[in-house]
């Protein structure tokens, strides 16, 4: 406990899933939280995104731990709006020490037009860049930046490209964004190292969240079925991992985020941490 006492942490995509888990775990270790989310659907992304009620629940859970929380409804693609919300939150909480650029979407399916590529890339990569860059004016020595990647960044882009596989344009945009997060975080880590600000990325495999549990994703795993059920998709989920599990849990990712946010990792930077039950090994990492 108290590994993050006195720190303020920003988390995007905080209304549910990995983002909520990160917010709660960081708060339980003593951090005050800035929890941001779009709280609206994006047309090309066919599964529903989080709501304002979800974001309020995240805030309730953070407050239950005894920490302060400021929430904001904002689209990470809008850097101007993001800066306004963040600057106000930092003023309320008195600083910023940890940035978890986590917001993401994963549109799936060949029926989705090219807009799926644009939206996935803009949220999953430009959203990370926007989040980090509006945060830099607030970070000082000891600051920690953590970006959410994916094992999808290890898949050859042609295998995610439009027309061929079941992922479609959205999957291609998602995969490209996750590839670029790897290089972006390494380059930024070198740039910020003289300022003692660390930059790392975590790369999960399947995570037990709404991004995994939806019909478009089930169809990716079971293209042989027109309307696969969760049970039918779950049979195939373990194929990605070397260890016998269909997915990892949000807590598994949050434990790594807490470590990278804390001073325990004060000399860890530029790292790509795969929390994937060996999926990267199977992909030839």
TrEMBL record:
The keyword Amino-acid biosynthesis does not apply. SUPFAM superfamilies: NAD(P)-binding Rossmann-fold domains. This is 3-ketoacyl-ACP reductase. It holds the Pfam family adh_short_C2. Belongs to the short-chain dehydrogenases/reductases (SDR) family. It comes from the Bacteria. The keyword NAD applies. GO terms for molecular function: oxidoreductase activity, acting on NAD(P)H, oxygen as acceptor.
């Amino acid at each position: 406990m108290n590994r993050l006492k006195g720190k303020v942490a920003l988390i995007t995509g905080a209304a549910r899933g990995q983002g909520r888990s990160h917010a709660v775990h960081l708060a339980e270790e003593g951090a005050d939280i800035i929890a941001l989310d779009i709280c609206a659907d994006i047309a090309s992304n066919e599964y529903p995104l989080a709501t304002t009620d979800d974001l309020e629940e995240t805030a309730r859970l953070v407050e239950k731990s005894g920490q302060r929380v400021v929430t904001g409804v904002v689209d990470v693609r809008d850097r101007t709006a993001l800066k306004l919300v963040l600057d106000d939150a930092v003023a309320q909480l008195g600083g910023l020490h940890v940035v978890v650029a986590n917001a993401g979407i994963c549109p799936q399916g060949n029926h989705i037009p090219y807009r799926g590529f644009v939206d996935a890339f803009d949220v999953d990569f430009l959203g990370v860049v926007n989040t980090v860059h509006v945060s830099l004016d607030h970070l000082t020595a000891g600051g920690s930046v953590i970006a959410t990647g994916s094992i999808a960044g290890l898949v050859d882009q042609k295998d995610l490209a439009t027309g061929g596989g079941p992922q479609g344009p959205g999957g291609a945009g998602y995969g490209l964004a996750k590839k670029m997060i790897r290089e972006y975080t390494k380059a930024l880590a070198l740039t910020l190292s003289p300022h003692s600000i660390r930059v790392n990325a975590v790369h999960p495999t399947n995570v037990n969240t709404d991004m995994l549990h939806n019909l478009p994703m089930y169809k990716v795993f079971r293209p042989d079925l027109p309307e696969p059920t969760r049970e039918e998709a779950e049979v195939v989920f373990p194929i990605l991992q070397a260890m016998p599990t269909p997915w990892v849990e949000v807590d598994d990712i949050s434990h790594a985020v807490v470590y990278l946010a804390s001073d325990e990792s004060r000399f860890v930077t530029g790292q790509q941490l795969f929390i994937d039950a060996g999926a990267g090994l199977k992909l030839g990492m």
